[in-house]
């Protein structure tokens, strides 16, 4: 079944060889049958003949019967049978075209040839004598030269960072690379000098020949064709398949045709060189430059129904150049994401018998791929595919937003209804599936661009410019960016925001700047900083206003409300995909290990299990903001959560009679001023990141952690030294109980003195202490002694006295 599908997708191009005199009609019929093999499922509708799916029953296009026609196609010649037709009531695809249109087999062959967009054979002059190449002599020359080589590392490749042993080197350290064809004939050789100069051995036949990286497989699933040899070596690291180097762009088509002729169902990828140039750049002859690498690759791919991928650069580069600059892993990702199938702009018409003018195909007559092109045109061609989620995205002039398969199907149905044509769910679904195969892959958006409704602000160039489709922006806020007023300040031009922020930060200048840094993190969508924000405080302290401002900065359409449970559940995580800001609002007290928030903010791929769709994994590029009255309590003390957590405590509660119900709307009117201030204040984004790092280590953040984690609070009563001269670790079984001698006893006394339940075991105590002490910037040291394991920690008796047992305070000695 798979083979049938692949043959349908890779129908060999029909060509009629020109011969002297008129070709016999029998030869024409046989040639058409051969070329149409594996393609009748699509060819017959294009000839105006409606047929059921392969192996199904349906209406007969010959006799008009409703359910006795069976399209078999078991030998790939369009075989059919009808129990209602007069004899002969069976035949192949050509017979069906003839019987349906009441024409001869010869005329039917001409109809099919026209659908295949072929010219019928015409009398031509006697062809020139075929040129034969002396393959055997050149093979002998190559063999003789190979005997003069030694195995070693090529200096040419080493300079490119490619370490490939067993290269064949000549005496001058030039690399000798034999050329071959798919029938394993040696047709020449390429010599590459140390400086990269390349030349062909005299007598070499380049057309259709290539340099193979490995022994030829019997039937490869994928063949990748490059131009140069170094590019081939790099591509071999980026994608699984048989790699062939065609030497240059002009030979890509010949090699691709040879591969397709040998293996009809093999996937062919052209790893193109990106001969990028400026739009107004001229060549040495004064003519406009063209991207010959891309053009040649697409031409070859079109000829063999193949794929193209080229380096996503704004300068001339091949895949080896891209690998040298960005590394193998990023190149591997770009290679896969850049795969696309080029489509021809030429539209082929169907010529029916006795027609003198070509007629346009209806949607019912089109194949699935043609309907997909119609669907693409309805979106003005502005569609692309996200490789991770297999979701189609549409560019609306500002951002690329996702379109569900259901919406695409509805748009396809609208096209049918506009032409007043019948449709089937299968026909609509197949058009959407075919469309996805045609679309280019989306690229990751640039991190230095901030989208607005009227353009983007480039943080690198520090300038505002119009939107571009190639920015691949997924998000933009709703604000219109405009020029600042003369002498613009927050205090004078955004007074409501300025007063709110001063009150929320208790007029603390340092905290004022750090809150601004948090707002910049949301505005610039710096999820890549691997941090999350947590705002705590009593009701009426300004937490909700902070969340509203963040929502305005990110854009209402880019903000989603969720819970900690949603971050940890694959099914619920499907609801937060595609948003840049995830707000966890006023949730009940959370106690857990924080595995979900740790994975998302850490940039890890997480499982997504959407309803009625295939599960997948992806990274969620969003900033997470938790807003609550009571801070979250995390059981993970390994540092995975702590190093990502940025806590702000809004301690100033606004009295009820001073609260302004319109404050949110007033601040919304000041949003352009706020944004301009943030962009100016943090022209270097790292300044904002440093301020957030300071907030992580602030006293108020530590106070919050002490209030939610007993072990962290216990460490606040300890004094650390650089030597292991402190308390013995001890365990729960040691008697008498002595918290001034044993560290674990001191911990148990702390828990009991503060009426806290469930102390951790001594084993867990030893595992968690390093992380808890790290909150204070201290290290946990231990060393064996004759009395047991001794630590570097001592009790601060002055502070620990509040929970120390009375017996330990009054009677027990220190040792």
From TrEMBL:
Which domain of life does the protein's organism represent? Answer: Bacteria
Provide this UniProt record's keywords sorted from A to Z.
Answer: ATP-binding, DNA replication, DNA-directed RNA polymerase, Helicase, Hydrolase, Nucleotide-binding, Nucleotidyltransferase, Primosome, Transcription, Transferase
Q: Does the keyword Cell division apply?
A: no
Name any GO cellular component annotation.
Answer: primosome complex
Q: Name one GO biological process term.
A: DNA replication, synthesis of primer
- GO MF term set: ATP binding; DNA binding; helicase activity; hydrolase activity; nucleotidyltransferase activity; zinc ion binding
Q: Which PROSITE patterns match?
A: SF3_HELICASE_1 (PS51206)
Q: Which InterPro entries match?
A: DNA_primase/NTPase_C, DNA_primase_Znf_CHC2, Helicase_SF3_DNA-vir, NrS-1_pol-like_helicase, ORF904-like_C, P-loop_NTPase, Phage/plasmid_primase_P4_C, Phage_T7_Gp4_N
Q: Membrane-spanning residues where? A: none
Keyword Nucleotide-binding: yes or no?
A: yes
Domain (SF3 helicase) spans: 510-663
The name of this protein is DNA primase
